[in-house]
Design goal:
Blueprint: H1 6-18, E1 40-44, E2 47-50, E3 55-58, H2 73-84, H3 94-106, E4 112-116, H4 119-134, E5 138-142, H5 160-164, H6 174-177, E6 180-183, H7 188-198, E7 202-207, H8 223-234, E8 237-241, H9 253-258, E9 264-267, E10 278-282, H10 284-287, H11 306-347, E11 353-357, E12 360-364, H12 373-376, H13 381-393, E13 396-397, E14 406-407, H14 414-432
The chain binds pyridoxal-5'-phosphate.
């Protein structure tokens, strides 16, 4: 049954007069999948409700943060209680120490951590610290990885940049872009070659240890180990951008899962419990180079904001109490979902392959395997758009782009997963008609 979108449509038309493209972050516009955004009224657990009263079983989870589901009662209570005491002080609070301690206890490579307000800030600041600490200018990243929209990192990026199919952005000076080398993900030889040529000028290699912004792409065995050893050889810092994977794949993130120790780690999304929050941290000797302990400057009016910190403590605290069984359960549900949807695609002769690590997955409309951005780009994005529209109509909220992750949260039940597989089966049957 076609859902009414009347109110969303009229709000989108209104928004476009006031906000560029009608949205405050590009991918939300849904242009890549041939749709228009639903304006959301409220959400609870695994479900979103839009302004037209339609309900959607949500697999976006605000792009990753909501691992406990929407409007988690403990997070809501913590934010409300903190708000009663004031929304911002611009001065330190005890709660910041509590959150910092939770983060450094869980993330193996972190001795110290600095709280910021977004993943973009976390990655940008980690790169500045790497440059400041090494006295070098060059940065190596991987094509299709996204580390936020700072100038140095918006080169051959994933996420919205991949969705819009643009190589970079006007406004990033060529002089800055030329300091960033972008290499193919999962290609240790390319890394070795680049490091043989530039190694003693490279401040850091920054990587999503499990890529989530070209769709989900796991590291090939040995890839992360290779990055670690090549960094050690050249005195280059290894930065893991765990903005998605931190507290998503395990309490210790991807670094705990793959047992690699980066020099610096970027966090975001989950650690703010759905409020604006990011963090970067690492070895004490590096972190003590940050102002005011050291000379590398980084600051923020709302950094360590009391509401975001309260939400973060409530979310991370719950994850710690739930422990690894919670992560095993998320993985199990995601495995059932991915296997069921994959089987349904095969049954209807739809070309597709899935990548999954823990509770993050992507169904690529490509024969696969997908090991890097070049492989991901072979996907039939029109087919993804068709699938997206059919699933939306059936009441499921997926990312409006082929090059993003689907997230299973603690709020998804086995019944939700079964419903999703059944709806995907019907969608593929429709797509198979051509
Ligand atoms: N790093 C990664 C791996 C991300 O996925 C994102 C956002 O999706 C960012 C950094 C930027 O975070 P934010 O959107 O909070 O600025």
């Amino acid at each position: 049954m076609e859902k009414s979108q009347e109110k969303s449509r009229s709000l989108f038309a209104e928004a476009k007069k006031l906000i560029p493209g009608g949205v405050n972050s590009p991918v939300r516009a849904c242009a890549a999948v041939g749709g228009e955004p639903r304006f959301i009224l409220s959400a609870r657990g695994a479900y979103l409700t839009d302004v037209d009263g339609n309900q959607y079983l949500d697999y976006v989870g605000s792009w990753g943060p909501l691992i406990l589901g929407h409007a988690d009662p403990a997070v809501i209570a913590a934010v409300a209680e903190a708000a009663e005491r004031g929304t911002s002080f611009g001065a330190p609070t005890e709660a910041e120490i509590v959150l910092a301690r939770l983060l450094v206890t869980c993330v193996p490579s972190m001795d110290m951590v600095r709280l910021v307000s977004s993943g973009t800030e976390a990655a940008m600041s980690a790169v500045r610290l790497a440059r400041g600490a090494t006295g070098r200018d060059l940065v190596i990243k991987f094509t299709g990885c996204y580390h936020g929209h700072s100038d140095s990192l918006l080169v051959e990026a994933g996420s919205g940049v991949a969705t819009l199919g643009i190589p970079g952005s006007p406004g990033v000076p060529q002089a800055i872009a030329s300091l960033t080398l972008s290499l193919p993900y999962n290609d240790p030889e390319a890394v070795s070659r680049a490091m043989e040529t530039y190694g003693d000028r490279v401040a850091c290699i920054i990587v999503e240890p499990v890529a989530g912004n070209m769709g989900v792409v796991p590291p090939e065995p040995g890839f992360l180990e290779h990055l670690r050893s090549v960094c050690d050889r050249f005195g280059t810092l290894l930065v893991f951008d765990e903005v998605i994977t931190g507290f998503r794949l395990s309490l210790g993130g991807a670094q705990a899962l793959y047992k690699i120790t980066p020099d610096l780690t970027c966090l975001g999304k989950i650690i703010g419990g759905g409020l604006p929050m990011g963090a970067y941290g690492g070895r004490r000797d590096l972190m003590e180079k940050i102002a005011p302990a050291g000379p590398v400057y980084q600051a923020g009016t709302l950094s360590g904001n009391p509401l975001a910190v309260a939400a973060g403590i409530a979310a991370v605290g719950q994850l710690i109490r739930n422990g690894e069984p919670f992560y095993r359960e998320l993985s199990r549900k995601a495995e059932v979902l991915v296997a069921g949807v994959g089987k349904a695609a095969e049954k209807h002769g739809i070309t597709a392959c899935a990548n999954r690590v823990g509770s993050m997955s992507t169904l690529f409309f490509a024969p696969g395997p997908v090991k890097n951005y070049t492989d991901a780009k072979t996907s039939d994005t029109k087919a993804y758009g068709h699938y997206f529209r059919l699933m939306t109509r059936a009441g499921f909220n997926f990312a409006p782009s082929q090059f993003e992750a689907l997230f299973v949260s603690g709020a998804h039940t086995d019944d939700d997963i079964e419903k999703t597989i059944a709806a995907a089966d019907r969608a593929f049957a429709e797509m198979a008609k051509g």
